[in-house]
UniProtKB/TrEMBL annotation:
Name used for this protein in its record: RCC1-like domain-containing protein
RCC repeats: 1-54, 120-174, 175-224, 267-304
Gene3D superfamilies per UniProt: Regulator of chromosome condensation 1/beta-lactamase-inhibitor protein II (2.130.10.30)
Source organism of this protein record: Coniosporium apollinis (strain CBS 100218)
Domain RCC1-like: 2-323
Amino acid sequence: MLLAFGSNGSGQLGIRHEDDVSAPQTCALPPSFEAAAHVHIAAGGNHTLVLARSKPCSPDALSSVMYASGDNSDGRCGNSSRRLNTFRHADLRINNGAPLYDVKLCSATWEASIFVTTEDAVFSCGTGLKGELGLGKEVTQATSPQLIINFPPKDTRIVDLASSMGHTVAVLSNGDVYGWGQGRKGQLGHPAEICWEPRKIDGIGFKAVRAVCGKDFVYVVGTPEEGTHTVLGSDKWFVRSTAPESIAGWKSISASWGGIYLLLESGKLIGWGRNDHGQLPPANIPLIEYFAAGSEHVLVRTKTGKILAWGWGEHGNCGAPTAAGGDDVADRWNEIEVEGVVMGVAQSSLTTYEAVVGLHLDT
């Protein structure tokens, strides 16, 4: 089962209507979703992608299925409908040819979707006025998935993929990081410019294993044992200048538009950067099992199984209540009531203006 709450003006929550909600609602998904053993959620400004993985029942069966909901006016959901308020299979056929089978990674910019297959072919679709599609000079729209040619480089594989509003980065098996899209703040290295196709980001100085994207920055980390990390791009919210020297012992990472968050193996959640909506971790937050950051808010599952949310909650994405006379859940958290055992949380990458929240339950 998949639950969602938050901004829903284009039906991106997949809950059969287009009204914002502040309490978890059951998403409408095809019966095949119930076989999902692992779920990854990515979302853009008004669309949501759900990558569901399961063990194939036969050698010819798919091990992953893509679903999508929301605005599909430019093909970003990989479906023939212009607008979806339920999740439907993304018909990922390349130029009306054979289906795009077994996607292993997906991400979304504001108006585009990016897919990586298990064979490390990379496809994009939707709209990208500043290189977000990665398809070449001034290619700004793809109404069906199109192959990004000559990427990744020979003898490498893509091990991580992340996007924000206007840019995408891919971490390769050799530790290199490539990026494309809006790069005018230096988030994709230098020169600071729009990158219309994947370009290697030089000068990182260590072998990367993960990366996440903020609105105008990219955060890259090495292994938890080494504790190496770097921030590329804008320092508007002091995401570079206030970063800790080392992050040894990290378990997972995420980013909002203006902040960076780390979950340590101990269960402690730390963060730095923008905090004008109370989006950084409140004092005395319980130990965390896993978490995700949205546009400017955070959702966690504690080690005792509780679901907590805080930060910018204008469209119900932090639950209720918010501050008197405002939309924030600051210096505290809301406990989100759900039935069943929550197996995972996701927050629309950080590309959604009013973030979508997903809860994967084992009932």
